[in-house]
Amino acid sequence: MARSDRKRGESESDRDAVLGRLRQSLAEVGFALPGSVVVRSYRCGKANCACHGEPPRLHGPYIQWSRSVGGKTLHRRMSEEQLADYQGFFDNARKLKALVAEIEALSLSIVEEDDRWPRR
Fold this sequence. Notes:
Radius of gyration: 24 Å
Order of helices and strands: HEEEH
Structural class: alpha+beta
Number of strands: 3
Largest sheet: 3 strands, antiparallel
């Protein structure tokens, strides 16, 4: 058995264990909403408004959900009640992205150790 084969064989069970953990974690993720949520305060376009005063009294705060749809960014305002209802969905989306990144990194490590690829 070649050295690289032993290395691959030894780490294969480790990778299987990691993949099993990732699969279990993926199975536990529920509904997920893409995008981000920010709280913003604005100045309006009216020159005489208090938001342009010194000190400024900005409009808001407004809760804004932003996401990309068909290459365009969509913004929607949310109420505090909606944010409370959907916060778990946004948390799940972050978990999902992290899990996919781990699976991709694990897959890349397998490809990088393959002796059939030319070395740089």
